[in-house]
UniProtKB/TrEMBL annotation:
Keywords: Metal-binding, Methyltransferase, S-adenosyl-L-methionine, Transferase, Zinc, Zinc-finger
Protein name, as recorded: Histone-lysine N-methyltransferase ASHR1
Coiled-coil intervals, chain numbering: none
Domain of life: Eukaryota
One GO cellular component term: cytoplasm
Species this chain originates from: Armadillidium nasatum
Entry keyword annotation includes Oxidoreductase: no
Limits of the MYND-type domain: 182-220
InterPro entries in the cross-refs: SET-MYND_domain_protein, SET_dom_sf, TPR-like_helical_dom_sf, Znf_MYND
One MF annotation (Gene Ontology) recorded for this entry: histone deacetylase binding
GO biological process: methylation
Length: 242
């Protein structure tokens, strides 16, 4: 019974967030939550909601053929739902009102209206330095004496120019960002997924949650100890562990 109630609770919360994202025109996030909700097979009779959300998302971005399929599935499952007849009739009218508008229409080409954020590595300005690969070609390493070694500009550098890009040897997410950023890739959260073991950190996607190369799995069960330890006052203990 506990598992069933938990599945229903998760499905319900995902659906509420999905509808809010649709109203905010965040169709990628709404679609992710709808697909995620289908993993919780609490009761097939409530799954019409997930399919309706998917239908709305694809209709809004011009994928009418795909939207038709999801609206059809929503109507089929609505017939088997446990809603009372009045709510069932109202819901059916709502789905059909959009279904009829897009039925038979061709897909609209081009990019979707809502694009999921993609984090990219910045590129150095003025090209890559042949001697120091992580630096811009606008600087050079100059060694004049044993104690006089430095990085010197070879041309004027404007404010905002990228001088150096280096991949960190190790990195951790600050504790104050646990609820706003993904613990795995550090991307800002939009439709967060909690860690199913510690529930202290969040992931931005199923891919990050299942990433076997991610380091959270090794620190998950002791995360609270790492941040409460004395060493954390000087150096973040998770950084030392990693």
């Amino acid at each position: 019974m506990k598992l069933i109630l938990t599945s229903f609770y998760i499905h319900n919360r995902l659906m509420k967030r999905a509808w809010i994202n649709i109203m905010l025109l965040k169709f990628d996030e709404a679609r992710e939550d709808a697909y995620r909700s289908l993993q919780y097979h609490f009761d097939p009779s409530v799954m019409w909601n997930s399919y309706e959300v998917l239908g709305h998302c694809y209709a809004k971005i011009g994928k009418h053929n795909t939207a038709e399929g999801f609206f059809s599935q929503a109507l089929e499952r609505l017939k088997k739902s446990n809603l009372d007849q009045k709510r069932k009739t109202v819901t059916e009218m709502r789905i059909n009102s959009i279904f009829k508008k897009i039925k038979g229409r061709k897909d609209i080409g081009g990019a979707a209206k809502n694009i999921t954020e993609v984090l990219t590595t910045p590129q150095v300005s003025y090209g890559v330095n042949e001697t120091l690969m992580c630096a811009t070609d606008a600087v050079e390493v100059n060694v004049k004496e044993k104690t006089d070694r430095g990085l010197y500009a070879t041309k004027d550098i404007d404010p905002g120019d990228v001088i150096m890009v280096e991949k960190p040897f190790v990195s951790v997410l600050c504790r104050e960002n646990f609820e706003t950023h993904c613990i795995n890739c550090f991307k800002r959260l939009k439709s967060p997924i909690p860690c199913d073991t510690c529930s202290r950190v969040w992931f931005c996607s199923e891919e990050c949650l299942k990433d076997t190369n991610g380091l959270h799995s090794s620190e998950c069960r002791v995360l609270h100890l790492l941040y409460e330890s004395e060493i954390c006052k000087v150096t973040p203990a998770p950084l030392v562990l990693r």
